[in-house]
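User: Predict the structure for this protein chain, please.
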Amino acid sequence: MNEMDEDRADAWFHALSDRTRRDILRRVLAGEHSVSTLAKSYDMSFAAVQKHVAVLERAGLLTKRRQGREALASGDVEAVRSVGAMLTDLEALWRGRIDRMDELFAEDAPTTDTTTHGTD
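Assistant: Here is the predicted structure, written as structure tokens:
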């Protein structure tokens, strides 16, 4: 991954690391919501919800638009698919490494001798 991809991944992981932000994202992926309507769903101030929305927006996971005095938030499905693709790539990378470690351990495993040696 190049530097820009790494920065984007950092922003995604940061944005998704908070359960409130994950819940906001689920809501706006299902349909556009005003930030004030979102704020009513949480036991926190409007300003706190605005900050969560801003983190998701900076990560590119949602977009906002103005309609009169309202800020309307929508989830960016393509961005979420990109997160999924990145996680799939990481999973494939680590599965490959684990498979290779299993192969190396199997090569180094002592073999058991099934014949008996000894005098009777």
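The mean pLDDT is 88.
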